[in-house]
Amino acid sequence: MSNGRLVIISGPSGSGKDTILKRVLEILPEIKFSISSITRPMRPGEVEGEKYNFVSKEYFEDMIKNDMLLEYNNYVGNYYGTPKAPVEKVINEGGEIILEIDVNGQKNVKSQVESSLSVFIMPPSVEVLRERLIGRGTDSAEVIEKRMKTAIFEMECAKNYDYIVINDDLEKAVEDFVTIIKADRMNIQRNNKIIDEVLGKC
Ligand code: 5GP
Predict the structure, then answer these.
(1) What is the whole-number distance in angstroms between the Cα of residue 91 and the centre of ligand 1?
(2) Counting CB atoms within 10 angstroms of each CB, which of 26, 155, 178, 190 has the fewest?
(3) Burial of residue 66, with CB atoms counted within 10 A of its CB: 0-12 exposed, 13-18 middle, 19 or more buried
(4) Residue 176's domain is classified under what CATH number?
(5) Model confidence over 151-189: pLDDT tens digits?
(6) From the CA of 75, how far away is ligand 1's center (Å)?
(7) How far is the CA of 93 from the centre of ligand 1 (A)?
């Protein structure tokens, strides 16, 4: 059996990463999803325990103290963190787990975890991203400009990732992500034991 894999997906607000991830998890249901603990208030439509566990600031700070987080970040005034135990369990069992985290989280994980796979979801252009954010109709012009500034910073960090997926066409972006995961299953790092098995050395 191949070794487990920690997969990171990041992308700016409006890149479509949530939609892509949802589709990829439907196509590859054997992949686990890491539920983050966060302190921001729940938004309408969000469900406790689905994408996030909504916890108090005090509880989160206890998690930090007790070394229960693989990584965490303070994002626009709220804590977001990846609980360590579920990730370690999946990896130790040889499975795959996807972390949907921001660019700071990716940097932290990369420096701690020897082998991870990171994928950045990119909009086709800055103009398309701005049009998508305006099209949502949920933010003021001022908030959109703030989000655009953050997005540009995040997109500059894409060079620190292993792969880039351009979300111009949703179907194509989903297919590209699935291709990356499937190719990674054949990565030599994850399959070095197979050589000895084929050669009858174990
Ligand atoms: P939102 O509040 O829009 O759900 O998420 C804001 C940002 O936090 C997104 O970029 C999302 O990917 C990131 N995020 C979600 N969970 C985590 C986490 O556990 N750790 C880190 N570092 N970022 C996270």
Answers:
(1) 21
(2) 26
(3) exposed
(4) 3.40.50.300
(5) 999 999 999 999 999 999 999 999 999 999 999 999 998
(6) 7
(7) 26
